Amino acid sequence: MSQLLLTVRELTKHFPLKGGVLGRSRGVVQAVDRVSFDVHEGETLGIVGESGCGKSTTARLIVRLIEPDTGEVTFDGAAVGRRLSVRKLRRQVQMVFQDSYSSLNPRLSAAASIAYGPFVHGMTRGAARERAHELLQAVGLDPGLFAARYPHELSGGQRQRINIARALALEPRLVILDEAVSALDKSIGAQVLNLLGELKERFNLTYVFISHDLNVVRYVSDRVMVMYLGKVVEIGDVETLYRRPQHPYTRALLSAMPSMDPSRRTLEAPLQGDPPNPINPPSGCRFRTRCPLAEEICAREEPRLAAFEDPGHAVACHMAVLPSGSSRAA
What we know:
The chain is an alpha/beta fold. It has a domain at 4-228: 3-Layer(aba) Sandwich (Rossmann fold), CATH 3.40.50.300. Helices cover 31% and strands 23% of the residues. The strands form two sheets. An eight-stranded mixed sheet has the order 6-7-8-3-9-10-12-11, with helices on both faces. A four-stranded antiparallel sheet has the order 2-1-4-5. Strand 4 and strand 5 (78-79) form a beta hairpin. Helix 3 runs parallel beside helix 6 (156-168) and helix 4 packs across helix 6. The longest helix is centred in the middle third of the chain and has 18 residues, at 186-203. The chain starts with a strand and ends in a 15-residue tail after the last strand.
């Protein structure tokens, strides 16, 4: 395993809800609650989970688009906000968002959007423009045709390629891709995924890949982290997690994956009901209200994320950790 590039420890973000005549607090939305994980240099970590599980909020907390309530982010051994300033962090960590159109300034051409970051960080205007043209070429867009075009003159796939080029403009080491291909049709999305693989090798990049598409995550990722209601419930090597999932929620997600095999048809919904309200999550295990295997211990105690049998595989479930008090513990 390569050296650690990113370390996240106990990252927490609760959004207060205010209302009424005096704007009094009506509680907090526990978007991300004590999330911890590592990203190794050169790998792709996939993050999956239902909408509202905290995937995108976690990404924004890492790059400090949102300020965390508590917790620590360490990049290449330097704690963000102490030894490493946010400005320096953003030179090395960039993000690509889902909506390719709203991510771009409609008044800037493709080349100007890409060149803006290097220019702000001290590069001359001419060098920044040259860098933009090189990156347009790298993402498969001819600078002669696309450098002067504005976002409304481009397709969704072309805009997302420009967003990727803009993210690479400062020569980052880590790129966070937040649903970067989910808004594209399948053929264009596949082309962008192949492009991301080529760019990773060419520029020695590390990826955090956030998606709800489990097939795509399996294709691009080395390890996968599963989140539910602001918590990490399982993390491990991609093949281990897909072949031997240990958390009931992970199993439910994988059973819902579309398949071309007629023998693997899903005859009933793998999960019943909606996720609980993040303002008032269930006690103990947050998944217990939807888990068909839940027991009394699940309501009484919150399961800790603990190592399972395979190296690097960890799961937060009373059934998988000994001793836990669960009658189903292996």
